[in-house]
Design brief:
The chain is of the alpha/beta class. It contains eleven helices and ten strands.
Length: about 260
């Protein structure tokens, strides 16, 4: 693997229970672990200006935020302004409902993404789309939903945040898929797991599951990514804070 590396951030969703109880203390611990940035997912009832003050006090970067598509459609300007206040460079749509995944619903959603992407660009923010496995179902033209989306929205208005867990879970090679979107993939989600079905999937700290993390990290570099972000949807075997510490220690062991 190349000796180059990217800064490592943490998806706060991974430690959401701790953040809900003590946002500042949790972010301080995340910084102490060696994470250089965070990705928000919700505001925990806090004002954007307060969140920004906490991040500035701790000395950690707000890289991005997962923001529900409904909020971006229905209250575009305020929603974007909130995350501009926090200091995010990227706003990522983390999930879309079933009615937006095919046919006229999908095409209507893509028109909304163009509009939202332009509103983001006007404020100096980039719009991203974060996948699960369902985006690798095929749509009417025979392509994967995810590929259809990126073929039909200009790169200037929509870029990718590939979740490498769900790419592999869907049966594709994460490294190959990240490289496919070279130049359009500023953030790569690092997520590890064991299992093969939704019923038995067991999310693991990075480096502790089935993923070939050195290859994924190299792919992120090859694709021109700016950040990698650790995310663990849930931690069953150990406390969430312990799990994300293990992930950061593993990456540090690789020189990241």
């Amino acid at each position: 693997m190349s000796k180059a590396k990217l800064p490592v951030a943490l998806a706060v969703y991974s430690v959401r229970d701790a953040a809900e109880k003590d946002f500042e203390g949790t972010i301080a611990k995340v910084k102490e672990m060696g994470y250089e940035g965070v990705e928000m997912a919700g505001l925990y009832g806090l004002e954007p200006s307060f969140i920004r003050s906490v991040l500035d006090k701790v000395g950690i970067k707000a890289v991005s935020a997962h923001v529900p598509i409904d909020s971006l459609i229905n209250d575009t300007e305020k929603t974007i302004n909130d995350y501009v206040t926090i200091g995010c460079e990227y706003i990522a749509i983390p999930w879309v409902p079933e009615e937006m995944r095919n046919g006229s619903g999908l095409d209507k959603m893509l028109k909304e993404l163009e509009r939202i992407g332009q509103a983001c660009a006007d404020k100096g923010v980039k719009l991203l789309y974060h996948n699960h496995e369902f985006e690798f179902e095929k749509v009417a033209d025979g392509s994967y939903m995810l590929d259809y989306m990126f073929a039909n929205v200009p790169a200037s208005l929509l870029e990718m945040e590939p979740d490498t867990c769900w790419v592999k879970f869907a049966g594709l090679d994460p490294g190959d898929y990240v490289r496919k979107y070279t130049g359009r993939c500023p953030i790569v989600h690092l997520k590890d797991y064991n299992g093969s079905t939704r019923e038995d999937i067991d999310f693991q700290p990075v480096g502790s599951g089935t993923q070939n993390m050195p290859e994924i990290l190299q792919a992120a570099l090859d694709a021109g990514a700016k950040w990698v972000i650790v995310e663990q949807d849930q931690s069953l075997a150990r406390p969430a804070m312990e799990a994300v510490a293990i992930s950061r220690e593993y990456l540090a062991g690789l020189g990241w």
